[in-house]
Amino acid sequence: MFYMDSKSQFTVDIISKVLDGKITINSATQLLQKSRRTVERYLSRYRKEGIRFVIHGNTGRAPINKIPESLKKEVQNLIQTKYYDFNLQHLSELLSKNEGLSIKRETLRSWAHDIHHVKRSKRRRSRVRKYRERMPSPGLMLQMDGSPHRWFGDEKSCLIAIIDDATSDIHAQFFPSETTEGCMKVMRAYIEKRGIFKTLYVDRAGIFGGAKRSNFSQMQRACDELGIEIIFANSPQGKGRIERSFDTFQDRLVPELRLHNITDMESANRYLQEEFIPKYWVNNVMVQATNSSSAFKSLPPDLDLNSICVQKEYRTIRRDHTFSFDSKMYVIDSPVRYSIENQKVEIRCQFDGTFSAYFGHRRLDITELVEPRKCHEYGKEVQRKIEALELVAELGSVSKAARILGCSRQTLYTYQQIMEEEGPLGLKRINKPLKRSKNAIPESIEDRIIELTLLNPHNTSIQVMKLLKQENITVSVSTIQTIWKREKLNTREMRIKQSQSMNIDV
């Protein structure tokens, strides 16, 4: 017993009517939309088998090209144990490369669904912005960004990448975090490989000089010296080229690093530079630019990347030709003809921890002071004089020291005499008593003004003047304000704070 669908039932009815002589073979061909040869074959089989002629001979048989069940189980086991974090296309490629199994993506999709294990693609929002074509020539615009992620192991690291908008040519490197050092290293490596590009498209992070910075960042300074224009994106979608590249890295690179048991940054960078980018990215992601002419420029001979791609800071030179940096004191040993006091020295910090000092384009010879001077011991005034005397002793000449310090020889002789007679404290300027003007108010009245002010810190100068009038003391508002300014009581907050510090009930 078997069941027939409506089409098979219709075929049996027509063939039986042909055998009964009710319709002709030509009519049957039109009704069944079959050829005369097919209808004649149906008639022959109907005479031998009856109505079972409508059943195809391969019904119930396995197809010749059907994949064995054992192979299906083997692949499903590999998906669950070894390739559990790969997408279907990537899985198909690796099965062919590593296992020697050539299985199509859609077949893998069906098998993965059977074991309820399918890594689905990320849902993307519908495009609401106008599509922007790629730049016509390489080197016109590069996009740069960093992506923190668990790329390898359990700890997060940051992948900093720079990509050409025209060709998708990329250079990337892993770093502990997104820092100026990492961005400069990636940019420098790309410049050494391709040349100087025209513009750099970045987000508004502080590293690149975003809106929160009040001055140039180190990246802005380096790009300015190289002649590279920085363009800030208003949204992540604006620099979609680099954002989509991170999606590719997270989708393909992460499982490959896990598959190769890579858990350290050095090995990950080596695999990224030697395996992933040359073998996959170059062959599958990079495209040809519409314009063959390149906008990259070779590095001019007068530009040195070692002096540009560094951290630059500036320090003020003191009278004794010393400066402080990184909580240490340094003295300038290079001979100088004139004093460079209060001038700026440029500190170029390499990323390996070393640094050098420059004045203009001249590199300075510096020496670290083993015992940094403590200015707080005698005060800054006395310390400057002690430093001047030490410079005299070091040079062995008062004239040379005076020329460097920009003072007279007599001043240094006076310092030497006081130092011999009274010691360091004798160098402190003795405050002479103030010469009060004949029109100045008595000190007793000044004391009374201060007393009333602290007793009534919320009062204005006019209110204090009225209180004084009640005591038959006449002073002007400007006089009160002058006294307040001298005693650091010129704001209400200062007066309240001073009053509270003296435990005065307000």
Describe this structure in words.
With 506 residues, this protein is of the alpha+beta class. It has six domains: 6-54; 69-114; 141-284, Nucleotidyltransferase, domain 5 (2-Layer Sandwich); 310-368, no CATH class; 380-427; 443-501. 43% of the residues lie in helices and 12% in strands. The strands form three sheets. Strands 3-2-1-4-5 form a five-stranded mixed sheet, sandwiched between helices. Strand 4, helix 8 (218-226) and strand 5 form a beta-alpha-beta unit. Helix 1 crosses helix 3. The chain starts with 5 loop residues before the first helix and ends in a 5-residue tail after the last helix. 21% of the residues are buried.
Strand content: 5-15%
Q: Could you give the distance between the termini?
A: 109 Å
Please state the overall shape, judged from the principal axes of the Cα atoms. elongated
Which residue ranges are poorly predicted, with pLDDT under 50 across at least 5 consecutive positions? 372-376
- Determine the CATH topology of the largest domain: Nucleotidyltransferase, domain 5
The CATH top-level class label of the largest domain: Alpha Beta
* Count of domains: 6
Number of helices: 18
* CATH architecture assignment name of the largest domain: 2-Layer Sandwich
What is the H/E string? HHHHHHEEEHEHEHHHEEEEEEEHHHHHHH
**In which order are the strands of the major sheet placed?**
3-2-1-4-5
List keywords for this structure.
single chain, 506 residues, alpha+beta, Nucleotidyltransferase, domain 5, 6 domains, five-stranded mixed β-sheet, four-stranded antiparallel β-sheet, 18 helices, 12 strands, elongated
